[in-house]
Amino acid sequence: MWKKCMGDPSLIIPMEDIVIKDSLSYEEIPIQILDRQVRKLRTKEVTSVKVLWRNKFIGEATWEAEEDMKKTYPHLLESREVPNQGTNPFLPFYI
Predict the structure, then answer these.
(1) Per the CB 3.0–4.6 Å rule, which of 18, 25, 35, 55 could disulfide with 50?
(2) Which domain holds residue 64?
């Protein structure tokens, strides 16, 4: 028996914004750095940044090594100051 389902239109991502390659894959592009943290290990400190990716919700942001992000996407860390704690309350729930 089929049940009626009410979908949430805010969760739909427009397909015009996504470029799909022949291999049915697409490249995620980082939009903004949301947070920064330093984890202290026994012999060194590892700095991580929380990255908001295009076509993802803020809840799906990922922690990446700051060194790797500097190599791959230097414009993200050069142009803006990275927050020390918490997330930006002025960002919408999704972009």
Answers:
(1) 35
(2) 28-87
For the purposes of burial, counting CB atoms within 10 Å of the CB of 36, is it exposed (0-12), middle (13-18) or buried (19 or more)?
middle
Would 2 be classed as within a structural domain? no
**Residue 55 belongs to some domain of the structure:** yes
| Cβ-based neighbours of 66, under 8 Å, separated by 6 or more | 36, 47, 48, 49, 77
User: 55: closest CA among 16, 9, 7?
Assistant: 16
Q: Are 38 and 49 spatial neighbours (Cβ–Cβ below 8 Å)?
A: no
pLDDT at residue 94 in the model: 47
CA 67 to chain centre: 16
pTM of the model: 0.58
